[in-house]
């Protein structure tokens, strides 16, 4: 959906300044979005996922595990499509504040693309290198964003989300190294980016981060003594649909979660580099960037 049309829509939760900051900077943090009830439900879902992961010795299509994961010391990196397995996390989007905030930034019709629950475990939880989301899942137009929900307090030691301000208005970089998919911006292109424009989106439990899928972003390892779970919802305007197969299969894929879809698609002009064929899915960005899988 065109930005000028979105800016004319009435706001549900965000302020006018917050919405303008998102479109100008490419990402924002919003404090105190989840009330205690929603936060407790989401945290209980996290505990259930961790408990179920204990019996696993290897990653599968749902659970991505660190190599040193054990029953006694479980170390999850990601749960793929957690909304498929937690009604509370799905309801947080449908009935909670997440869907309303998405409307403020995507327009009255909002489409669900995918969900994931990312972890950074204490004392060195995996970094996420600088990357953009568009190379992973290009859509017909750029009205695509990710809302991240901090389920525990997240300061700079825990590896909060960082964005490069204004990068969504500039180049979308290849995430290939020649013909090999690496899942991040390669070193040659990284030298073209002004990394001094990084913006650290740390926040307390119940706060959220939002970034456009063109925005360059990443996060440092977790060097604290506490875990950093982050629930992620990837959403688009109703008129923006993916060009490529969904790697994280979900029973809710392409569901309209706000408004009514008018059966129209808006296509931006241009050429798009597509990611590898993920018809059979993939484990996680952590595994790809750490060269554990392709």
Topology overview:
Blueprint: H1 3-7, H2 16-25, E1 27-30, H3 36-53, E2 63-65, E3 76-80, H4 87-94, H5 97-106, E4 110-120, E5 128-131, E6 144-150, E7 161-164, E8 176-177, E9 180-181, H6 187-190, E10 198-201, E11 208-212, E12 217-219, E13 228-237, E14 256-258, H7 285-289
Antiparallel strand pairs: 1-11, 2-3, 3-4, 4-13, 4-14, 5-12, 6-11, 6-13, 7-10, 7-12, 8-9
What is this structure, in a nutshell?
By secondary structure, the protein is of the alpha+beta class. It has helices at 3-7, 16-25, 36-53, 87-94, 97-106, 187-190, 285-289, and strands at 27-30, 63-65, 76-80, 110-120, 128-131, 144-150, 161-164, 176-177, 180-181, 198-201, 208-212, 217-219, 228-237, 256-258.
Can you walk me through this structure?
It is a single chain. The protein has a single domain (3-289), classed as q2cbj1_9rhob like domain (Jelly Rolls). The chain has 294 residues and is α+β, with helices and mostly antiparallel strands. It has seven helices and 14 strands. Strands 1, 2, 3, 4, 6, 11, 13 and 14 form an eight-stranded antiparallel beta sheet that branches. It is globular. A hairpin with a 2-residue loop joins strand 8 (176-177) and strand 9. It has helices spanning 3-7, 16-25, 36-53, 87-94, 97-106, 187-190, 285-289; strands at residues 27-30, 63-65, 76-80, 110-120, 128-131, 144-150, 161-164, 176-177, 180-181, 198-201, 208-212, 217-219, 228-237, 256-258. The model has no long low-confidence stretch (mean pLDDT 92). It starts with a helix and ends in a 5-residue tail after the last helix.
């Amino acid at each position: 959906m065109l930005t000028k049309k979105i800016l004319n829509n009435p706001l549900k939760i965000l302020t006018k300044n917050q919405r303008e900051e998102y479109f100008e900077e490419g990402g924002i943090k919003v404090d105190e979005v989840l009330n205690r009830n929603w936060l407790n439900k989401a945290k209980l879902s996290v505990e259930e996922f961790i408990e179920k992961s204990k019996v696993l010795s290897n990653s599968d299509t749902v659970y991505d595990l660190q190599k040193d994961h054990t029953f006694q010391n479980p170390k999850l990196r990601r749960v793929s499509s957690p909304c498929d397995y937690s009604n509370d996390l799905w309801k947080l989007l449908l009935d909670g504040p997440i869907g309303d905030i998405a409307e403020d930034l995507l327009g009255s019709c909002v489409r669900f693309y995918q969900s994931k629950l990312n972890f950074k475990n204490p004392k060195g939880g995996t970094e996420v290198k600088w990357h953009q989301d568009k190379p992973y899942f290009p859509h017909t137009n750029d009205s695509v964003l990710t809302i991240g929900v901090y389920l525990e307090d997240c300061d700079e030691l825990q590896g909060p989300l960082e964005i490069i301000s204004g990068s969504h208005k500039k180049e979308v970089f290849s995430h290939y190294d020649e013909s090999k998919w690496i899942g991040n911006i390669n070193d040659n292109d990284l030298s073209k980016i002004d990394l001094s424009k990084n913006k650290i989106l740390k926040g307390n439990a119940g706060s959220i981060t939002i970034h456009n899928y063109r925005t360059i972003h990443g996060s440092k390892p977790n060097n604290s003594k506490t875990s950093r779970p982050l629930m992620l919802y990837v959403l688009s305007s109703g008129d923006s649909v993916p060009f490529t197969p969904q790697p994280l299969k979900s029973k809710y894929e392409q569901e309209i979660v706000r408004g009514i879809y008018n059966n129209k698609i808006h296509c931006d002009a241009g050429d798009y580099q597509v990611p590898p064929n993920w018809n059979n899915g993939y484990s996680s960005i952590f595994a790809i960037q750490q060269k554990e899988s392709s």
